[in-house]
Amino acid sequence: MQDAICKYNKHKGGLTMSELVDIHAEFGRPRSSTTNDVSDHGAVDISVVMPCLNEENSVGLCVSKAWEGIRRTGLRGEVIVADNGSTDNSRAVAEAAGARVVHQPRRGYGNAYMKGFSAARGRIIVMGDSDDSYDFTALPDVVRPLDHGADYVLGSRFAGQIRKGAMTWSHRYVGNPVLTTILNVLFKLRVSDAHSGFRAFTRRALDKMALQCEGMEFASEIVVKAARADLRVAEVPITYHRRIGESKLNSFKDGWRHLRFLLLLSPDYLFVMPGIACLAIGLLSQLVLLGLTGSSALAGKIMLALVTLAGSQLLTFGLFAKTYAKSIGLDKKSRVSEWVERTFTLEHGLVCGAGLCMAGLAVVIHQSVEGWGPVAAGGLSASTTILGLLSMVLGASVWFDAFFLTMFHLKRPSPAVTLPPSEFGAEPREAPASIAVSGGAAN
Ligand SMILES: Nc1nc2c(ncn2[C@@H]2O[C@H](COP(=O)(O)OP(=O)(O)O)[C@@H](O)[C@H]2O)c(=O)[nH]1
Ligand SMILES: [Mg+2]
Fold first, then answer.
1. In this structure, which residue's CA is closest to atom 1 in ligand 1?
2. pTM for this prediction
């Protein structure tokens, strides 16, 4: 086996089909101690899942190495290749090497994995590319922490070794470190390689993570959701080898997908913090400029009022985003969010909005009685008028925001219940979906 792997590695990057067949014959089918007959419906211990898109030159080797890795763990296993519409011989090569091939018609790294995971039967699941960049014979090292209490193991290339030519300069020194740092900052984590493709987790952990990203950002999703699900995480150093065949990664498109995903899951950084900053700058600077006169002071005051308005909009976006994320299980309840939910009910929002509106209106009416001349001069009366107008606009938006926020608390329609056929002999009918308002802001 080792000889065969060494021989194959020497050929990396350029094998003919007949050489491939020879080598797969040399690896042979997996040995009986670890073989998992597909017809055997008993649970297996370990499922190695690989996504595959046109990897005919490497997938057979990866499957064979995975079997060797499984044999070394002494567990009963299976190897699943989730094929993503390969147009080469990947499927045949994978099957010949002893993998169960499942087909995922929808493109995307995440889609391929989700299909593979749904077919996996092991209590331990290992994931890794089918391009020979990860050495599946090192499988015992990757799954070992699971026996010592970890729920999820991340194989770290940066804590281990990156072989010459395995990673481009830009990915090694810019893309991966920058995205990993952003992820660590946004989610208060300390992972060393957020985009490693070699990982292992328990089935319970997989269920808890409820993964759903379709593309390359799936790699980030696992890291974030493992943390959100409070999984016990371990990192093990791994060696990253030069892949066989062409990379399917598009640096900018896939990098952006990662970043977009991280930002979408971070309403605090995306909306709330910039919102608070704009509000603070807008309001405090208004105070500083309070008594200043002249046309430039007036222009400055108007601009700062708009900054304040933008800040309040960002804050409410943050509130919407956090409420929505929580409603679909992407954000955990925190003491602050519970306090906000308890305190800011729809009725509180309406009273507060109406109060702000009326206070602002009173200031503007008072100013109109005094005359607009002093406002044009840009002094104190300009400041109070601008603050009055601001208060009116903020009040109106709080009023409508309160209604919008309450919509997140509407319950989803309950699943359709099929009623018996009506007395007129019509087709079975569906019960009407009910919509109810739950507690929280609706109370
Ligand atoms: N990028 C990408 N990879 C896919 C897809 N379907 C399966 N894969 C497999 O996912 C793995 C990761 O892709 P790869 O090109 O190696 O990306 P890299 O490891 O980040 O350089 C490989 O085994 C691909 O064959 C897909 O739709 N897109
Ligand atoms: Mg790869």
1. 248
2. 0.78
